[in-house]
Amino acid sequence: MSAHAVIAGIGETPFSKESGHSDLALNLSASLAALADAEIEPRELDGIIVPTAVTATVEDLMSNLGIEDLSFSSNLRVGGAGPVSALLHAKLAVESGVAKRVLVSYGFNGRSGARLGRRPPTIMFGEAPSLRRNFEGVHGVIVPSQFYALWAQRYMDEHRWTDTLPMAHVAATQSAHAVLNGLGPGSREITVADHQQSKMISDPFRLYDCSRETDGGAAYVVTAADNSGERSVRIRGVAEGHPGQPDQPTTRSNFLRSGMGSAGQRAFAMAGWKPGDIDVAELYDAFTFNVIWQLEDLGFCAPGEGGHFVRDGNIGVGGTLPVNTHGGLLAQAHLWGINHLTEAVKQLRGDAGAAQVNKATRALVSGSGDLGDAAVALLEGPHA
Amino acid sequence: MTTGYLKPLPKPTDTDKPYWDGLKNHQLLIQFCATCSTYQWYPRAICSTCTASTLEFRPVSPSGEVFTFTTQHHATGSKFDAELPFATVVVELRELPSIRVVGLFVGDPAAVRIGLAVEGEYRDVSEDVSLLVFRASKESAE
Asked: Cys-Cys with A334: which of A138, A318, A329, B56 at CB 3.0–4.6 Å?
């Protein structure tokens, strides 16, 4: 009998601007919620993946959850691709028989603890000396809004954009979703005009092009289908993709090629699905531009058509492809994208509240890191 | 000794040290593989085309065109905040169009656009370190 891995449970902490809890406490709160949702005792876990370079360690989680042994553990370092990439790793572990119940846990005080611009900029460079320090940082390119602005400027030039209204539509649409969702701290609806009048940060990005650094945690549990409950979500496809010359994006021969396109193709091939089969998409949105970029890379629209696609209203709840129904990193919470996975599971279970997409049975979730590492998951609901 | 330069400085590695030494001598040096005659950038430990270790550094003119850029308006918590707004440009070299290098733009950031012809200059920021910066070339200004 071959095992099929499923997402058996999800958990989230409250999302806030100042949690008042440690990163570890956020991890534990999210993990316990996910375990309760999956109806699994902590001691039944035999695999743990820490999906990012920040947050708690596997050892922290073992010690606090009273776990005596694990047959599988890993710590991913692919930036914001981590939470989706972890689903691939967990699936491989479960389907190979290496582990039966794998926890993926994230918890981080992304706003009160370590806001960009309020910590020494050297942190952004990782272990010094690094390529980013030597070949970008010394020239003033220090924060992610600048990394992504370099891509956005080039994209806008190649596609002859004369304004940033498509990005404004992404910001406005997702802000409305965040209000429907209600879980983001202080979410409020903004208009296209609000976006256009907001402060310039890293040209072409204004304030509302940038995601919301947030305190919070989220977790999920992957098990074999035959060990799971009726609310489990099936993993039909999950894949990674990576760009060439990953550690220094400005030198890439194909500047606008991240790993997203190949990750999407692999995931769709695994599932036997095509983009038109997707009911709801949760796309990694560190910046508004990333949504437009990915809509093209993932095949939801033709290259160069992403701007029209979002301006034509397709990405709203009720549109042809609702995107980031919880508000995303832009308007709900920047949790390195693990909240995209938990939101997709809620949508497929019919638990997404006021932002519920009618008859959502197939979801796409993407994750991507600042160096272009990417992962895509294709999920199917329990009632499909 | 104080240099007065408080912005981030490079931490040269064994691999990229010749590049930094070149800048100090006001030369832009790009890594070149003597086995397969390929230029590569940034400096790497081996040739990423043919895996040979026969790497050397060759001088290249620091002129080219702006391939992409960003103008920073918001504080990042670094010492660059004193110069806001400032533009950083990614420049495709005229002599080696496959190579792009990064530098601060000297001059009005509002003048920067993709395709702008720029000339590199060397700015001695400390006794040990010179950095490549770019300004609009004269042909662009006309």
From this structure: A329
